[in-house]
Amino acid sequence: MSKKIAIYGTSEAKVPVKQRYWKRRIDGVKQRYWKKTTRTKKVEESVRYEFHGKGKDLYKAIVKAHKIVPKGFVDVSAKEFLKEPERYGYEGEWIEKEVKSK
């Protein structure tokens, strides 16, 4: 039987900033593009992780999630999160946090 656990609250993370710039195409038309920059800005937002899976994997995912803040609302298997945590969140810190299990 699969178990579920949720971590939610507010967090502060450094998010990469995109920059808009104009480029002239070969046919002479100016067009806007978005480009990722190396700059980051601090963002405070409401976020939530929902993990499901075996108890041992849930425990490991909760420990790993203390340093990695989710990108908004994330519902993922604990095994998948442990394989690639950077895919589901940014490196940051939790301001407020609450853990609930079902």
- C-alpha-based Rg, rounded: 18 Å
Spatial sequence of strands, sheet with the most strands: 3-5-1-2-4
Oligomer: single chain
Shape: elongated
Give me the count of strands: 5
Order of helices and strands: EEHEEHHE
Number of helices: 3
Largest sheet descriptor? 5 strands, mixed
Strand content: over 45%
**Can you tell me the residue ranges where pLDDT is under 50 for at least 5 consecutive residues?**
none
At a glance:
By secondary structure, the protein is an alpha+beta fold. Helices cover 20% and strands 66% of the residues.
What does this structure look like?
- This protein is of the alpha+beta class.
- The protein has 3 helices and 5 strands.
- Strands 3-5-1-2-4 form a 5-stranded mixed beta sheet.
- The mean pLDDT is 88.
